[in-house]
Design a protein that fits this description.
The protein is an alpha+beta fold. It is built from five helices and five strands. It has a single domain, classed as Roll (Ubiquitin-like (UB roll)). A hairpin with a 7-residue loop joins strand 1 and strand 2. Bound molecules: FE2/S2 (inorganic) cluster. One of its GO terms (cellular component) is mitochondrion.
Length: 151
């Protein structure tokens, strides 16, 4: 079973992070597949694979797909607003945001979409993400757009 998983990973590892790949060698973890698009280019749909238990923000950044990286300035401390994503399909399957995440989601102002926006640093890869479609804002500017709104 593990060897089949290894062979499959070797064949299909184009968007599999190195960390996830090596993790799969040593522990039998579920591979989860979901779709991701840059918010500014919604016609581009990439299939990203991650492993159950990994962090969504890390998985997106490690995929090294241009336009899918998120900042994560505060390193998952819910203090920076820079890791937001919009889960356009599959939001209702996700675990509800914590009170702390909800607070920071409201700080996004006009960039917050009810029942769509989440902080990617707070989401773990799980079966709940299977088949979801996530849109990533243009990260280099997203945080500055939010900060300029509060001026
Ligand atoms: S990395 Fe800062 S809020 Fe997610």
């Amino acid at each position: 079973m593990k060897n089949n998983s290894l062979r499959r990973n070797l064949k299909q590892s184009s968007y599999l992070s190195a960390r996830s790949f090596f993790k799969s060698l040593f522990s039998p973890v579920e591979e989860i597949t979901f779709k991701v698009s840059p918010e500014k280019e919604p016609e581009k749909v990439f299939t990203v694979k991650g492993y159950e238990g990994d962090n969504l923000m890390d998985t997106l950044n490690e995929s090294e797909i241009k336009g899918l990286n998120v900042f994560g300035i505060c390193d998952k401390q819910l203090a920076c607003l820079s890791c937001r994503v919009n889960v356009e399909e599959g939001y209702n399957n996700l675990p509800k945001p914590t009170e702390e995440e909800t607070d920071i989601l409201y700080d996004l102002g006009r960039h917050y979409k009810d029942n769509i926006t989440r902080m990617s640093c707070q989401l773990k890869i799980s079966k709940a993400l299977e088949g979801a479609h996530i849109f990533v804002p243009r990260s280099a500017f997203a945080v500055f757009e939010i900060l300029s709104d509060s001026d």
